[in-house]
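Marked as duplicate of an earlier ticket. Keeping the data here for the record.
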Amino acid sequence: MSPASPTATVACRLCGTPTPALFSATVLNRYVVPYHYCRGCDHVFVDQPTWLEEAYTEALAAEDTDVAARNIFTALRLAAFCYTVLGDRGEGKFVDVGGGYGLLTRLMRDLGYDYYWSDRYAKNLFARGFDANVREGASTAVSAIEVLEHLPDPRAFIRRTLAEQRSDTLVFTTEVFADGHPPAPADWSYYAFSTGQHIAFFSRRGLDRLARQLGMWYYPAGRLHVFSARRLPRWKLWLASRMPLAVPLALLAAARLGSRRGRDQVLVRRQNTGAQA
């Protein structure tokens, strides 16, 4: 692993422990940045990402070529999870935070779930008319797909988001490294130095530690990770986390719940008619 540039320790973003730099890397092809590693939290992070405004001139990085496939497969996994683990039969409300251009929200509504979009930095293109409104009541669960790695303070984000959405369950995705073995800079493309957008990284052990700090349970479920204040049935999590099982479970849920495409078209038409009146 390449040595880090000499730098003072900084407080771990999760536990406050003085944390040395693990390595340094060049971000956005011009900023030499130390990446710190807290062994107690099994967490790699950047302390002062001063370039974020520059990194987010566009919400979606050009090199994120798997955005469409990721949303499709994530929607199938989420539908299987909501139907099997949470037992939702169309009565619940869900919110996708950091929802990008709204593709996942649209897919989830197509699969029958009452899903809403929220993102402070992107424009809702695919799920227009279904922005989240906290006044509409508590959320059964909140999803945050490829969000945590973008955050200077993931713990504060989770607390604030669950409080705002009045939910006790967060379902999210992020790539994880092997417990206790943060990858070398050249060995893990997920650092994404060229985009400058990824600044926080976890192992499963680190996510379990973070969940405990939040007073929640951590459930790894394949590509999904779940924080919940509820005890969830692990055998159902196992079913929903296996892609060969998740696909038929998602399609079963869609068949029973019914797609919201037609209903949503009517709702949006009424919204537009009301706005023009």
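See parent ticket for discussion. Residues 67-175+216-273 form a domain with the Rossmann fold fold (CATH 3.40.50).
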